[in-house]
Amino acid sequence: MTDFRDAYRALRASPIVSAVAILSLALGIGANTAIFSIVNALMLRTLPVKTPERLVLVMPGPGRTSWSNPLWEQLRARDHEFLDGAFAYSTQRFNLARGGEAELVNGVFASGEFFDVLGLPAILGRTFTPADDIRGGGKDGPVAVISYAFWQRHYGGAADAIGSTLALDRVPFTVIGVTEPRFAGVDQGRRYDVAIPIAGEPLIRGAQESLLDERSSRWLLVMARLKPNDTIDRATTALRGVQPQMREATVPEQLRPQEAANYLKGPFELRPAANGPNALGQQYRQPLAILMAVVALVLLIACANIANLLLARATARRHELSVRAALGASDWRVARQLLAESALLSASGTALGVAFANWGARLLVLELSGARTATALDVGVDWRVLLFTALVATATTAVFGTVPALRAARIEPGEAIKEQGRTIAGESRSGFGSLMVVLQVALSLMLVVGAGLFMRTFSTLAHVPLGFDPDPILLVDANVKRSAVATVDRPTLLERMREAVLAVPGVQHAALEVITPLTGSGWDILIENPDGLSLPETDRDVWVNGVSPGWFATHGTPILAGRDFTRLDNASAPRVILVNETFAGRYFSGVNPIGRSVRRVRRPGVDPPWLLIIGVVRDSVYVSPRDRIPPTMYQALPQLVERPLPGATIVVRSASGSPALLARPIAAAIARVDGDATLTFRPYRERVREVTSQERVIAMLSGFFGILALLLAGLGLYGVMSYAVSRRRTEIGIRIALGAGPSRAVALVLRRVVVLVALGIAIGAGLSLSASPLVAALLFGLEPRDPATLAASALVLTAIGVMAGWLPALRAARIDPARVLREG
User: Fold this and answer.
1) Chain centroid to CA 14: how far?
2) Measured distance CA(588)–CA(594) in Å, rounded
3) What's the rounded Cα separation, in Å, for the pair 580 and 630?
4) Which pTM was predicted?
5) DSSP character at residue 593
């Protein structure tokens, strides 16, 4: 305690140095803790359920996770033979509103075994069981279990929530239970609000659109619990033993012979799932690994900087330390005093860093979230975060505190009686400070190169031509499942809504679409070989969208040849399509495609109609700006007969101003056509921003840490050169007295700066070139070893180095030789 009391006094005696050191550590440790908190929440923290280490994800084939309900029912009938229970579930958003604008909550379709296999009791009421998961409903009818957070938010925590009726998509469900607060669902990043049995799916989607009996619709995830003392390998072997019977009983009817053969032989797999299926963790695994490396480098640079500061201060305190030695203090006692100062600095930086980390981690979660895909991660401090932070704090103390303490411990007692002028200033640090500066420059170059690559990637993605202009567009999702019209009349109802929206003042264009580009949804089909071609199936996969007349004008996508859809292209008219440039170039290269026909491949019992090409449109992005634009065809929406339409998106182009301002009058116009339609509104620009959220976060963080690294490297270089000028003050004064001009003094200092920076850049360039391929998968539009980025980073670092050395150089040029000689 005496050491720490003395350390506190010593740090308070030099508040600027102490504040710089603490702030540097706070940023370094805070950044490491913040990123680790995200890693912990996504990849390390297990589900708060019974023995989560025995949970596995059941995969119906290599790389596949989705199951059809018939295939799941085959597994459920046999799981007791080789598993300690299994359950299936699917995420869904339920609407609580009874009309007009939707009030959406996160829902789950879950099999009756869901809560039992997870080992989750209800804190109020009960959870549902297999007896509730039967078609037509169990004895209590359609039931629902709600989360603790939803119970507090929607019911105010009232006990009479049990037994109440909750309308989901206007279907009444009886609330029978509330789950415990720590359970938020099995999907990392997504909290559930309401869970209902899978058998209730036809009530939500409608009997005609239900997927319960669809063998070709894969919409469920399946998890299971291994039996005690069983292994994944043994359970996988047993699962594959019953695979043939399960597959044969669920072969989709419309598969061609080769597709059916592939379906029958696809091997089941099991994957550990202690933290759930964790698709979000898989998506961000590599970016988080890169960011952990980045913040570790920032902390190393900060440690090198602080080591230089402490070493310079220890040099200035040589008289004090030599007095301690003369009074009998051992080398270890002197070293312990400086280590106590280092530990106090580290503890202060850690305390401030934890506060910064808590704020930074929550900000990152917000950046990863979107309007529809709100990311909910528990980034609170747990034992892993505390242990990680403690280890980082201990390591930083050792890194920046050991060398100054050991060098100070070798102080001679005779230093106490020496004069405090040239002799002390003449003591050398044996190049340790210069070595630290070279290290800082090398590591800083790596960070700046990485920041440059990620920022250029984000900029390139943000400026990829989309083929349409999203800024003036408002997306209005119109769900008409509860409307009082027959299924076959829904396209007509949607067209009437479109016409009503088009009449709203401020609306320039309005159109309908089945698939909204850049939302992650897609619809692809396999077409037959056009005449004169013999392409493999992999080259005949085309993407499809169903759109109304005016869709291309609404998006601002020009029609290059032919015509747009009209009202005459209805369900009774010949089937027509427009195709994009890529489609025309791949299948009709050198030939005008207008007037030619294509069709889907024939399947057992299905003879698809021919589709007449009536126009060619400019290419536009379909799923992601990272992907190459696929061959795409657009069908007239009234001619879509594959499945009943539950609704469509009304794409609205504003004539002027923010498109969000049109939401209220559009809602009123649609209500006059059909008050039962459920609506959600969203500016298209928000969706485009979400598509590049990963790249934006990485660019933002790497840019921030790159700037921080430059600042720390500049401070380190300034400190070393200031110390060097003070150490060589007598030498420089004598040079000036002998006729050397101020410019020679400046050149003397800057030459040393250039040498240190050049060495650091050379080492950093080699490290950057070696490490850049590790980030290749995260880049877009440039090579990982991009020479322009490396050159620009080196120039920026050189400029920072020259600026940092300029002030000490000017100080050297202003040295008064007469005063120096008198002091000497």
Assistant:
1) 42
2) 10
3) 9
4) 0.83
5) -
